[in-house]
Specification:
The chain is built from seven helices and eleven strands. The chain is of the alpha+beta class. It has two domains: 109 residues, 3-Layer(aba) Sandwich (Trna Endonuclease, Chain: A, domain 1), CATH 3.40.1350; 80 residues, Arc Repressor Mutant, subunit A (Orthogonal Bundle), CATH 1.10.10. Strand 4 and strand 5 form a beta hairpin.
């Protein structure tokens, strides 16, 4: 007789963050934490740290993109000469490797701090001395670049992909093959007969491929989706 526990897989803790420095946990004015994320570059889910809600939202959006191969949180600092000729070091919040092979250095800052500290000028000096082996280009992300609805949608996708459901994905995939016109998510879920499992599978298909939803619109039961390529 087989023990039913024979089919249980042993728990493997997530890989540690590769951050070159970790945020202080003593501050009372910002949100610090970590997120377990499984990207194509990871053999196993890995922890990635963030130092603010803005960084957390950026991380959600990066993790939801199909062209992102890897995200290195708090990568090694880049040395640069500032406007006064003084050697300094800047640590980017994320170094992103795309599936194309291009690497992008991302700095995340509230717009008010960007203006107050003339951060864009500093970033230009950093980029001027940034080794090509580190990144091909630099992107500044502020709250002006993040849509709150898209962040919430990406956070939902992040939560759902922690629990893959192959049966639900296959059922929704079969329904998608027969779609010829935009369809309400609630109708797809009803046709699947899977309830909440069907909804999660639809969300996964929007981010993984197969379905397209309207940008900057809440992904919920009342949202319209189209077959990818026919939108």
């Amino acid at each position: 007789m087989n023990d039913e526990n024979d089919n249980l897989k042993p728990f493997l803790p997530p890989l540690p963050s590769r951050a070159s420095r970790f945020p202080s946990l003593r501050t009372k004015i910002s949100l610090h934490g970590s997120m377990v994320m499984h990207l194509p570059a990871d053999a196993h889910p890995r922890c990635r740290v963030f130092e603010s809600n803005l960084e957390k939202g950026t991380l959600y959006l990066l993790g939801a993109r199909r062209d992102v191969h890897d995200v290195w949180d708090q990568p090694p600092g880049v040395k640069f000469l500032d406007a006064h000729g003084k050697m300094r070091e800047h640590t980017f919040d994320f170094r992103v490797e795309l599936t194309s092979g291009e690497c992008v250095a991302i700095a995340v800052k509230p717009w008010a701090r960007v203006v107050k500290t003339d951060f864009q000028t500093e970033l230009a000096y950093v980029q001027a001395m940034m080794p090509l082996a580190f990144a091909n280009r630099v992107i500044l992300v502020t709250e002006r670049n993040l849509d709150k609805i898209e962040v919430r949608n990406a956070a939902m996708f992040h939560e759902f992909r922690q629990h893959e459901d192959a049966e639900a994905a296959a059922r929704i995939g079969t329904i998608i093959e027969g779609m010829s016109a935009p369809t309400l998510i609630k109708d797809l879920v009803a046709k699947s007969g899977l309830g909440a499992r069907g909804f999660r599978a639809v969300v996964m298909a929007i981010y993984r491929g197969g379905l397209v939803a309207k940008r900057r619109a809440e992904i919920n039961y009342g949202a319209l989706v189209s077959v990818e390529g026919n939108a």
